[in-house]
Amino acid sequence: MRTLQHHELILITGGKAEISVNNKKHTVQEGILIYLQPDVPHFIVIDSDDPISFVSVHFSYVQIEQNDSAWNVRKDVKMFPLPAVQQLKDYYQVDEVFKQMADTWNTKLPGYEFIAKTLLQQLIIAIAQNIKKRHRNYATSVKVEKIINYMHHHLHGKVTLTELSELVQLSPPYLSRTFKEITGYSIIEFFNKLKMDKAKELLLEGDSKVKEVAQLLGYTDEFYFSRLFKQTEGMSPSEFYSKNIHGV
Q: What's the predicted TM-score (pTM) here?
């Protein structure tokens, strides 16, 4: 059992657990967003067979008011209008901002605190937008999920808009528009992002050279792959490997 003196947002990205907030129990799994307010007792019991993975952020905030040219700071701010536990649908944008915040905080490059604060604002906006779109056509959401699963199984090659449109029986223009609304990315951007995420996994395993990783992901041109990786990650594959394996 614990209580916090600040706010915490937790996004469950896998596994299972049970959380109790104010003596109310909830089963949590992938896609669950947890909002813990200050001074609220809670505890989490993790499933031993399928332990959870998650991303989280702890933060505090105040309310600034201006009265007669004077700035006042109010610390007795209202809590966010969020339930303690809720299931998010199509939470890719929320997950992406969470990961950007974690990367920013962990790398601690110049200006990282300001960037992290800006990303926190983006995260809150992404959560609000997700809730607003909760009543989206469920059938369409299922089709986007099907496309993403299809992409995961074809990271070694290429996919086309025509191919994906036929897979889910949606017109190419409608699919392109809907996919971006749900994920925040165009289809090709999302597919490339999945490839780069897989490339990072392969590089960190340390068993494959850059050329081999490129070939495993369907890139015949090692230098094109390296340019694409740098555009996405801000550093070359070799720099990413050195930084994460050797700390330089």
A: 0.60
